[in-house]
Each structure stands twice: as structure tokens, then as C-alpha cells.
Amino acid sequence: MSECEVLVQLRLLDSISAISNTESACCVITGSHGGVTAANFVLACDQRAHVVAFNDAGIGKQDAGVVALALLAEHKIAAMAYSHDSACIGDAEDAWKHGVLTRVNHVASAYGARIGMSIQEACALWAA
What we know:
By secondary structure, this protein is α/β, with parallel strands linked by helices. It has one domain (2-127). It has helices at residues 36-43, 67-73, 92-98, 106-110, 119-124; strands at residues 2-6, 8-13, 27-33, 51-55, 78-82, 101-104. Helix 1 runs parallel beside helix 2 (67-73).
């Protein structure tokens, strides 16, 4: 796990299974896909991250790679997915450096996150 400061507190987690209560009020970038299990890891924390980014894993059948976005929106958590073509699955640092958004939930959209935006640009929105 890596940590750095860029306008907001940021956590880079290669796997969403490493998420914990220490990520509350953070922007979490994960190398994991945004499936149902990923949403469950986020929701299992008593103190939840404000923003979570997942690899879209190619989206998949019935949007399996990004279904977490809608599930997290139900809990007012901003969630977004970046293209598997822009960053490696399982590599949060690559996602931070190169990730380009392909999906955003309505909570993230309300903050200004947009498809085609870099993860760095999207995370900067939460500092404002």
C-alpha cells in the first residue's frame, strides 16, 4: 500500500480487500475491479472512504466489473471506474498515474467527475 498527499488524503490499494477504517474521508484508488464483492469490502468498514476508484476490468457481462458504483451510490459514496486499457488491473499506482475514467456514479458526477477525466483530475475535485 502506498500513501501520498495530493490536495486530499489519498490511499493507493492494489486490492480492495486491504481497505480499512483508516481510509475514512480518503480518496481510495484500487487496482481491483468494481464487482459486488468490492462494494461489500467498502461497505464493511465502519468509517467509509468518501471516494473509491476501481478498474473497470473491461466492464463485462451485465456490467459485472462496475456494479459496485451503483451499490456504493446507494450509500452516498462517490465511486468511479477507470479503463482497463489505461492502467493495469491490480496496480493502484499505475491507476493513479495513468487511469482514465470510463464510468462514474451519480454521487461522483455531482462533484464534477466525468468520463474521460484522469483519476488525478477527479480526485482533485474533492479538495474543493
